Amino acid sequence: MQILDARRLAAVATLAVAVACQRTTGPAAVIQRAAGGPVTVGLEVARTPAEQQRGLMWRTRLDPGTGMLFVFDGPEQDRVFWMKNTVIPLDMLFIARDGTAAGDGRIVGIHADATPFSLAPISVGAPATWVLEVPGGWCARQQVRTGDRVSFRDVPPPGA
Fold this sequence. Notes:
Layout: H1 2-22, E1 28-32, E2 38-46, H2 49-54, E3 66-71, E4 77-78, E5 90-97, E6 104-114, E7 127-128, E8 130-135, H3 138-142, E9 149-153
Parallel strand pairs: 2-3
Antiparallel strand pairs: 1-2, 1-9, 3-8, 4-7, 5-6, 5-8, 6-9
């Protein structure tokens, strides 16, 4: 009987550790998927022009469950990116304010698997306030789609 209880306790402890490891501390985006429950992305935030210009250039990897959020001040507009000096393929999620709360948005377009080192302009033809870059193929694996809602945790709103 004690062996069974010890096994149950070990299983519960393992589950608790796994759940705790999935919890992201610091800035995060929580995407409410139409295709399922929420998925959380830990964020590096690029707010300044210098941070935005550098972006993910020369990075050789981006950890699963993480991404870089570009926060743009001023009016929403069609954002244009490129992959100059970017070594890894990326998915780019273009996010517009949705009007429900200061830090909430809606995905207005996704550019999947952007080609490393390409100078071709990347946009989705829709105004956006934020652009989230995640590892290439992540959106397909996580079933993240245009129209999904996004809320931000510990991210100052644009203009702050």
